[in-house]
């Protein structure tokens, strides 16, 4: 699932960066380019960094794969 649509970054890419040692949103911005477009991905990325499940997206109210 894409997390950062502006730069085409997926949950898997973020998880791989975290597994490789990224510990902050700033590091992910530098490594993957997330959060440099519209910024809508910032909340979900920070949740993923904390190990929290992402919130349901607004478009489908939780009916999509993000549940």
From TrEMBL:
Matches recorded under InterPro entries: BFD-associated_ferredoxin (IPR052371), BFD-like_2Fe2S-bd_dom (IPR007419)
Annotated BFD-like [2Fe-2S]-binding domain residues: 2-48
The keyword Metal-binding appears for this protein: yes
Domain of life: Bacteria
Any GO MF annotation of the entry: 2 iron, 2 sulfur cluster binding
UniProt keywords, alphabetically: 2Fe-2S, Iron, Iron-sulfur, Metal-binding
Name this protein carries in UniProt: (2Fe-2S)-binding protein
């Amino acid at each position: 699932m894409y997390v950062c649509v502006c730069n085409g970054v997926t949950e898997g890419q973020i998880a791989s960066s975290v597994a490789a040692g990224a510990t902050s949103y700033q590091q992910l911005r530098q490594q993957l380019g997330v959060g440099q477009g519209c910024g809508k991905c910032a909340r979900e990325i920070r949740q993923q960094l904390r190990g929290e499940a992402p919130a349901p997206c607004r478009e489908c109210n939780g009916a999509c794969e993000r549940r």
